[in-house]
Design brief:
199 residues; mainly alpha; 10 helices
């Protein structure tokens, strides 16, 4: 089959009109890679390859758009591609490419997310659980949690106590403290930190 015409679309793609009346929409990188020009003769085997490469590019571009909306973990990108019905053989290739482009960095993302959780008054256990939920490896979680010392957790726990105690004014001091300890533990703070915070 002969390529009769190439016309650029609004995106980074071209429409290839073939002599059999078929039209292929291909990313410009594919056009360049296979040197597709007007008048070139291509066979069915090459057309199959072009279709597969275009399919890869479409999922690759979706993954880039998704990752640019905000930092994402490797697990989140993989889950996103699966929900979009991306072929399994493309997923690892796409993730590797996103790593190369520094669009995936689980350590950096987990560190940023953990700091946000601390500022929202979450304790160590809750931070660990939330990082695990987004697919961060146990090695990275441990590395991040070790970097936060107990004094920092205690400082945030004390801030919570001051704010939360106002909600328990109708109770006597002992009951207030019991409720505050329970609240802190529910937020992921250790029992030790919780009791120290109410002193």
């Amino acid at each position: 089959m002969e390529i009769l015409k190439l016309s650029k679309t609004k995106s980074d793609c071209y429409n290839l009109e073939l002599s059999n009346n078929e039209v292929l929409k291909l990313h410009e990188d594919i056009i360049i890679k296979y040197r597709l020009t007007k008048g070139k003769i291509i066979d069915l085997d090459l057309i199959d390859i072009l279709i597969q490469e275009q399919l890869y590019f479409s999922f690759y571009n979706k993954a880039i758009s998704y990752s640019l909306k905000g930092m994402k973990s490797k697990f989140q990108i993989k889950h996103y591609l699966i929900t979009k019905e991306c072929p399994k053989e493309y997923i690892d290739q796409i993730i590797d490419k996103l790593y190369d482009l520094k669009l995936i960095n689980d350590l950096k993302y987990a560190n940023t997310y953990a700091n946000q959780l601390i500022k929202k008054s979450y304790g160590k256990k809750m931070i660990e659980a939330k990082l695990s939920q987004i697919g961060i490896s146990s090695e990275i979680i441990n590395e991040i949690l070790i970097s936060f010392d107990n004094e920092m957790y205690l400082d945030y726990a004390k801030i919570i106590v001051v704010k939360q105690r106002k909600n328990y004014k109708k109770y006597d001091l002992k009951e207030q403290n019991n409720k505050l300890v329970k609240y802190l533990i529910q937020r992921g703070y250790s029992t030790d930190i919780a009791f120290k915070a109410i002193v």
